[in-house]
Design goal:
The complex is a heterodimer.
Chain A: H1 6-40, H2 42-45, H3 112-127, E1 144-151, E2 154-166, E3 175-176, E4 179-184, E5 194-197, E6 222-223, H4 225-239, H5 243-252, E7 254-255, E8 266-268, H6 269-276
Parallel strand pairs in A: 2-4
Antiparallel strand pairs in A: 1-2, 1-5, 3-4, 6-8, 7-8
Helix pairs in contact in A: 4-5
Chain B: H1 2-29, H2 36-45, H3 55-78, H4 94-105, H5 121-151, H6 161-186, E1 196-200, E2 206-210, H7 214-223, H8 244-268, H9 272-297, H10 304-309, H11 321-334, H12 349-360, H13 371-391, E3 396-397, E4 400-401, H14 404-430, H15 432-435, H16 442-457, H17 472-502, H18 517-550
Antiparallel strand pairs in B: 1-2, 3-4
Classes of the chains: A alpha+beta, B mainly alpha.
């Protein structure tokens, strides 16, 4: 027998172990699990399908149609695209927009704050309530000032710009620290200004938080009970339904906390809308 | 309120389950007879299961196995297009395939690609599935060797790598995977071999629903410290994590094997009290991280956006909620798992900082499978050494003297991760190729880069996903970070084990520093925190702290 060096022998052993693992862990195990799953939990294993209408676990885009309850905003592709699941991934202090150039030579990029404010305004208009939120302007962008100071970080304010409001918009406050507030000129460099978000006077927020934020994967099948109740009057009006009946339908499609204390309650939007169409 | 109750119940269940599992693992992994089928397997693979290996042989086998693993995965990813079950996806470009191959072999599983548009079923089952289990087992092997180095009373042998590997896979991971896989499938995780199917949505659009063997992958992803998603959204995807109950189970699975391994250590060294002491240290660190994370994520302390929204809801799933996302995030980074059920990039700035800190602690609370234990032991050895110096005696641990030669390996071990993380982050921030990938501007952009290298070097795999990592620069620097960050520490661990195993233990005397009780717990916990803070506080100050405190 030929003696091979130790390091060659170990690599040959490694190769054979990898092959054995590929056959057992890599093929036998998942295929056996598929067989077991299909036999015992056929509905779940096949993706919890609702007939030809998709899956009860995968949220859908209801395209703003007024007779349907609407899902949360989504960052998956163009919205609820299972081929491109994603979150928005903007940070908690993403408050300053990159404004688009008026001649179209440069695309803009909305900050997370402006996305939230714009969605809040849109949902408020759709449901006939106020879309106002803290840190948002009336025209649905983040209420953020850029304050230039005499000594850089300190000193008196010398110039104040409303960073997310492109000219010729009227700034959401006229005067800040005695200085007239300007609208923002796209492309101008405001990097030297201190960024100051302005909370504003809003006390009562009508649009729930899940209606103005994207989910972790972009396929969230649920909305909060509060968001469903906000949409209920519109849907009842569009469909000529009794509000009490609709309320019962919402309750029936609400999942409480698992075991009474895990996670959060949610309303399954697809199942609720299917029930409205009489297809459930 | 519900959030704390949720955390308490999951952690209590973990505490109960880790005892029988840890005891079982001690019996199944160390000593005892080979099963008939195992003997046949060793024969087929051409290894002698009864031959003890010294630390050099053990390391050689470990590195050989990992090298072949990388090569096999690389081949699978690049040739995927001509193999069955590819779902029409082509092969990956070489730099992405290299990164992905190293990523899953080193138990990191950072993904610079989106699963649903890149990997077919064969790549997931026979590629990720195999290396997920194998890489977790490699960590267990290194920890078993170190444990034997401490427990044995002379000789050179640290065990046999191939036996440790085969037993970790077939006696621990695979049976657990079947149990947890079936449980998750019952809760709604799909398990089929379908491809993409287009359905008409209710409102008159179309939607392409993607099938796949998710249920068999999910327990591997969670249990082995792997953490890579079947889909891009990982456990935020309803097919991977359909309910709040499955979310709780997933958190438990992530923490279970590493926690049980602490018990296994206690059993193998015949010192269950020491096992409990280590568990208390890990538990205190976990509790600190969870408390800090929960406070940072609450609406009143959250950032500007959270106050506008009325909660830290951006990037979280309705069914899981903010507390369920925070607990999952802390569990995924305090272990080496790195799965995600929400957007860590959109966490409150300080909340993201807590996840970073959990990784920077060295993933020891409870860390990865095996890697958590040896990481924890390294911290404990530092504490023993410091404590020994304070009372003016030669430091001892389990009767083995911890002198200069031993401490050299401990210090080298501790230096690898900070050097690689800070060096690579500095390089990326200095080069346009590094900066152009940032998804956020300013301090948060720096946090994204720091997070990326911390996650890659420590083998975590969770991401602040705003960073575009799929560039030649990031694929290659991350690959370097993962290789050095995984195998160099393992080499130091095995070298240390090789020294320790030769020592005949000395009897404990009145002057021996006791490795139990309040004093020692405070010393070890404080040591872990101070080591991590000294290394990383400046970087944390420029990243998440600046982001959160200056707004």
């Amino acid at each position: 027998m030929i003696r091979v060096p130790q390091w060659v022998a170990q690599h040959l052993a490694a190769l054979r172990v990898v092959l054995v693992l590929t056959l057992t862990v890599g093929l036998l195990y998942p295929l056996a699990m598929t067989g077991v799953a299909q036999a015992l939990f056929n509905h779940q294993a096949d993706g919890s399908r609702l007939g030809e209408h998709g899956s009860e676990l995968i949220g859908q885009d209801f395209l703003g149609r007024r007779e349907y309850f609407q899902s949360r905003p989504s960052a998956a592709g163009d919205g609820y695209d299972p081929g491109a699941t994603a979150a928005g991934n903007l940070g908690a202090e993403s408050v300053v927009d990159t404004l688009p150039a008026p001649d179209g030579s440069r695309e803009g990029k909305q900050s997370l704050l402006t996305q939230v404010c714009a969605r809040s305004k849109e949902v408020g208009e759709r449901e006939g309530v106020s879309g106002a939120r803290p840190y948002c302007t009336g025209d649905g962008v983040g209420a953020v000032l850029g304050v230039f100071r005499a000594d850089g970080l300190t000193g008196a304010a010398t110039r104040v710009v409303s960073l997310n409001q492109a000219c010729p918009a009227a700034p959401f406050v006229a005067v800040h620290e005695g200085v007239r507030v300007e609208c923002a000129t796209p492309g101008e460099d405001y990097a030297k200004a201190l960024v100051v978000p302005i909370r504003g006077e809003v006390t009562k927020v009508m649009v729930p938080g899940d209606a103005v934020t994207v989910s972790g994967g972009g396929l969230d099948p649920h909305i909060s009970v509060a968001y469903a109740l906000l949409q209920a009057p519109r849907v009842a009006r569009e469909r000529g339904l009794n509000p009490a009946d609709l309320r019962r339908l919402i309750d029936r499609n609400t999942t409480g906390r698992a075991l009474g204390f895990l996670g959060e309650p949610g309303v399954n939007v697809l199942k609720l809308n299917l029930a409205l169409d009489g297809k459930a | 309120m519900y959030g704390w109750f949720q955390a308490l119940s999951i952690l209590s269940l973990l505490l109960i389950l880790h005892v029988p599992l840890g005891d079982y693992m001690a019996k199944a992994l160390d000593g005892g007879r080979h099963l008939k089928v195992e003997r046949a397997l060793y024969r087929v693979c051409g290894v002698d299961p009864d031959r003890e290996q010294d630390w050099r042989r053990y390391l050689l086998a470990l590195v050989a196995f990992s090298t072949v693993g990388v090569a096999a995965l690389f081949a699978l990813f690049t040739t995927q297009g001509i193999l069955p079950w590819s779902l029409g996806h082509g092969g990956m470009p070489w730099e992405l395939a290299l990164h992905a191959a190293v990523s899953f072999t080193t138990n990191t599983s950072w993904q610079n690609y989106a699963g649903e548009s890149t990997t077919g079923h064969l790549a997931v089952m026979a590629g990720l599935g195999v290396q997920g289990v194998a890489s977790g087992a490699v960590g267990m092997c290194a920890a078993l060797a170190l444990t034997r180095g401490l427990a044995r009373r002379g000789g050179l042998g640290l065990g046999n790598f191939w036996v440790d590997l085969v037993r970790s896979v077939f006696r621990v991971f695979l049976p657990l995977a079947v149990v947890f896989g079936v449980a998750l499938i019952a809760m709604g995780v799909q398990q089929n071999l379908d491809g993409a199917q287009t359905v008409n949505t209710l409102a008159g659009g179309t939607q392409t629903v993607i099938g796949g063997p998710v249920g068999s992958w999910e327990p591997i992803k969670l249990m082995t410290g792997d953490g890579g998603g079947f889909f891009n959204a990982s456990s935020a995807h309803p097919f991977e994590n359909p309910t709040a109950l499955s979310n709780a189970l997933q958190i438990l699975i992530m923490l279970l094997v590493p926690t049980a391994f602490i018990r296994t250590f206690g059993r193998m060294t015949g010192n269950l009290k020491l096992g409990w002491t280590l568990l208390v240290v890990a538990g205190i660190l976990f509790a600190l991280l969870l408390t800090a994370g929960t406070l940072a994520q609450s609406a009143t302390t959250g950032g500007t956006v959270a106050q506008a929204v009325g909660g830290q809801l951006e990037g979280t799933e309705t069914r899981i909620g903010v507390p369920g996302s925070t607990l999952f995030g802390v569990a995924a980074t305090a272990s080496a798992d790195g799965a995600l059920n929400s957007s860590y990039d959109s966490f409150a700035s300080l909340g993201g900082g807590v996840l970073l800190a959990a990784m920077m602690l060295g993933e020891i609370a409870p860390g990865g499978t095996g890697s958590g234990l040896y990481g924890l032991l390294m911290v404990v050895l530092v504490a023993v050494f410091l404590g020994g110096l304070m009372v003016g005696r030669t430091p001892e641990f389990l009767g083995k003297r911890i002198a200069f030669a031993e401490m050299r390996y401990v210090v080298l071990y501790s230096l690898v991760a900070p050097t690689m993380i800070l060096g690579l982050t500095a390089l990326a921030i200095a080069l346009p190729a590094g900066r152009s990938s940032m998804g956020n501007a300013g301090a948060h952009g720096l946090t994204e880069i720091l997070y990326a290298y911390t996650s890659n070097v420590n083998g975590n795999g969770s991401a602040m996903a705003g960073l575009n990592g799929n560039t030649v620069f990031y694929n290659l620097t991350m690959t370097l970070g993962m290789l050095v960050g995984r195998y160099l520490p393992i080499a130091f661990v095995l070298a240390l084990a090789g020294r320790l195993v030769q020592q005949r233990p000395v009897a404990a005397t009145a002057g021996t520093l006791r490795t139990q009780g309040v004093n020692f717990v405070v010393l070890a916990t404080g040591g872990a925190l101070i080591l991590a803070l000294l290394n990383f506080l400046p970087a944390l100050a420029l990243g998440p702290l600046a982001d959160g405190l200056l707004g």
